Amino acid sequence: MARSTISWATPAALASLPWRSAGVLALTLLVAACSSGPAVRQGSSANYGNRTVGPERSAGQEEITLEAMSLVGIPYRYGGNTPDSGFDCSGLVRYVVARAAGVNLPRTTADMSGVGTVLERDDLASGDLIFFNTTGRAHSHVGIYVGQGKFVHAPNSGGTVRLESIFIPYWAKRIDGVRRVAANKAPAGNTTYVNRSAPATVADAPAAEPLPNVPMATAPNRPLTGATPSPLETPSSTARLTSPPAQDDDPIARFANSSM
Questions:
Q1: What family does the entry list (predicted)?
Q2: Residue 153 annotated among the catalytic residues of the structure
Q3: What are the residue ranges spanned by the domains of the chain?
Q4: Which of 107, 133, 224, 231 is 20 to 30 A off residue 3, Cα-Cα?
Q5: Which of 254, 97, 100 is nearest to 180 (CA)?
Q6: What's the number of CA atoms in the CB half-sphere (13 Å) around residue 159?
């Protein structure tokens, strides 16, 4: 069996995929066209903090990535766990993983942090869960890694589900865990795709735990230095951000192509 590789989405590749809806296809074409980040060559690695992010190795987790990307822009709502109600951080992750991978996660971030396979940071791949300590309490925030150093999450009240770089110092220094909750390779012909008009199938869960109101505009000012070079060839104007941008305008266009 040939090893799966990651490549940029092309029109031919997109046409061959069983996309779930015209909306998701349009989103994919859009992000492929406007992504400004360079491709990561197989075997490359990048430093962040005291660890490294190695080559992307996701295979069969693209459903989670696509589902998460399709929800960018949905309003944040404490306790929310559907697109109609809005999402908090754990509600978003639980909804995405249930819909895209058929895995029913616990409702709170602390409980989610005990599910699945523990990963080293250099094994991080699209579709994995990435946890943060934002309140002085371990695993107090969670998002979904979507490749190219980006993750999707629902960060704070008054905001929306957003796409953000894990290399922004505020987030990079708060990463405290990575988990894989979906199969590393999806079985052929048995992939769950999302019908966007279908009702949510996520089981009822207890009310959400209090989530941090992340101070987007007051993130610590810790610019990158020579010891922490710009990761994944990220443009310096982005790599030196010390707080999340007010608006996400650098979408990711990285998808998994698997072959037998």
A1: Belongs to the peptidase C40 family.
A2: yes
A3: 5-195+225-257
A4: 231
A5: 97
A6: 24
Pick the catalytic residue from 20, 107, 150, 153: 153
> Which residue of the set 89, 97, 125, 224 is catalytic?
89
If pLDDT is split at 50, 70 and 90, which confidence band does 61 have? confident
What is the residue whose two structure tokens read 């987007």? 216
Look up residue 122 and give its DSSP letter. G
Q: Of these residues, 94, 141, 174, 254, which one is catalytic? A: 141
Q: 139 an active-site residue?
A: no
CA angle 16, 21, 22 (to 5 degrees): 85
Catalytic (active site) residue 141: yes
* Strands, E assignment, the chain: 5-8, 46-48, 51-53, 81-82, 86-87, 117-118, 129-132, 141-147, 150-153, 162-165, 175-180, 254-257
Residue range 78-110, pLDDT digits in tens? 999 999 999 999 999 999 999 999 999 999 999
5-195+225-257 CATH fold: endopeptidase fold (from Nostoc punctiforme) (3.90.1720)
